[in-house]
Amino acid sequence: MTSVVRAGHLAPYFKASSTVLSNGLKPVVVVATPVDKLVTQPLAHTSTVQTLHGSLPIQGLKAKHSTRAATQVRFAHSDIAVPDFSAYRRKDTLDPTVKAEEHVDNRNTFTYLIAGAGSVAGAYAAKSVVTQFVSSMAAAADVLALAKIEIKLAEIPEGKSVTFKWRGKPLFIRHRTAKEIETEQAVPLESLRDPEADGARAQRPDWLVVIGVCTHLGCVPIANAGDFGGYYCPCHGSHYDASGRIRKGPAPLNLEVPPHTFGDEEGILVVG
């Protein structure tokens, strides 16, 4: 500790002195020791696209050797067990001394044969599935039985038209006379709205089978009426001849001819 005081007139008799005493205590502050080299923590290496790209060689690799240096040695595993696929390879490609291109046609033929056989089998299976699916939506046997009717033609006199019910629709069966047949066959087709020959509508000249629904708005025509002696629709005035062809009025088409055949027995007509 240092103090400054005023001695006064006794100052010449004082003498300044200092004494250093060791107290045996450790210093509070660590004394730094100088070193020759500064040690720093290296930065962590990051593996990014930029760093990996920078590690790639810029120029092409070159192998160098010298008479005074050792030859380069490839330190790689050469004892790797490779599976033998000879059991799965074709016989044409087992011989390593023969080029595979020499037998490419044979191999392609086998491939095409297998692909073709598979395609045929797949098409047959698809056909069976589609046929079974479509058949499931077909009408039942009892419905098909009602879809066909048999009519005895002997019960229909000549010159008359009789109405039957077929699939919920009126069916006109007309026993035509020789005069009606001659008249309808002599009609020129260019004069018809829906040109159709009489022979194309009647399988037998003396029998006409048509559906009794007007092609205009679905009314039921009246037989043996109208300007042409065939059928007449009272709803809007459509006139049909004895062949069921539209001759006058708003109807656009002829009366529809349903599928029908004449049975093996004489005088039997099968419709449907």
TrEMBL record:
* Alphabetically ordered keywords of this record: 2Fe-2S, Disulfide bond, Electron transport, Iron, Iron-sulfur, Membrane, Metal-binding, Mitochondrion, Respiratory chain, Transmembrane, Transmembrane helix, Transport
One of this protein's Pfam families, by short name? Rieske
Q: Add the further remark from the entry.
A: The Rieske protein is a high potential 2Fe-2S protein.
- Which family, according to the similarity comment? Belongs to the Rieske iron-sulfur protein family.
Q: What is this protein called?
A: Cytochrome b-c1 complex subunit Rieske, mitochondrial
Name its species: Leptosia nina
Q: What chemistry does it catalyse, as a reaction equation?
A: a quinol + 2 Fe(III)-[cytochrome c](out) = a quinone + 2 Fe(II)-[cytochrome c](out) + 2 H(+)(out)
Q: Which Gene3D superfamilies match?
A: Cytochrome Bc1 Complex, Chain I, Rieske [2Fe-2S] iron-sulphur domain, Ubiquinol cytochrome reductase, transmembrane domain
Q: Which cofactor does it need?
A: [2Fe-2S] cluster
Instruction: Spell out the SUPFAM superfamilies in the cross-references.
Output: ISP domain, ISP transmembrane anchor
- Please report the record's description of how this protein sits within the membrane: Single-pass membrane protein
List membrane-spanning regions: none
**Where does the record place it?**
Membrane; Mitochondrion inner membrane
Lineage, top-rank taxon, reads: Eukaryota
Rieske domain residues: 184-269
Gene Ontology MF annotations: 2 iron, 2 sulfur cluster binding; metal ion binding; quinol-cytochrome-c reductase activity
Entries under InterPro entries matching the protein:
bc1_Rieske_TM_sf, Rieske_2Fe-2S, Rieske_2Fe-2S_sf, Rieske_Fe-S_prot, Rieske_Fe-S_prot_C, Rieske_TM, Ubiquinol_cyt_c_Rdtase_Fe-S-su, UQCRFS1_N
Q: What is its main location?
A: membrane
